[in-house]
Amino acid sequence: MMLVRIVNTKYNDSVIIEAETIEEIRRIAREEVEKRGWDIQDMYSEEVVS
């Protein structure tokens, strides 16, 4: 299982995505970013290590 945090620096907000593959992470990230109306220029991602 992979955990990735997508951070939006403009809004000081983030979302954590959990999935089995990087492809799933990318798909979910696109959906979450679109829902929130975030601009890609305001974001970065990081792996969450447990």
Outline the secondary-structure elements.
Elements: E1 2-8, E2 13-19, H1 22-36, E3 43-47
Antiparallel strand pairs: 1-2, 1-3
Task: Kindly describe this structure.
It contains 1 helix and 3 strands; from the N terminus they run ββαβ. The chain is globular. It is 30% helix and 38% strand. It has 50 residues and is of the alpha+beta class. The protein has a 3-stranded antiparallel sheet, covered by helices on one side. The relative contact order is 0.35. The longest helix has 15 residues. The termini are close together.
Spatially, the strands of the biggest sheet line up as 2-1-3
* Coarse structural class: alpha+beta
Low-confidence stretches: none
Helices, by number, come to: 1
> Mean pLDDT, rounded to whole units?
95
User: Major sheet, described briefly?
Assistant: 3 strands, antiparallel
Distance between the termini: 11 Å
Shape: globular
Helical residue percent?
A: 25-40%
Strand tally: 3
Order of helices and strands: EEHE
The radius of gyration over CA amounts to 10 Å
* DSSP strand content: 35-45%
Notable characteristics:
alpha+beta, globular, single chain, 1 helix, 50 residues, 3-stranded antiparallel sheet
Summarize the structure.
The protein has one helix at 22-36, and strands at residues 2-8, 13-19, 43-47.
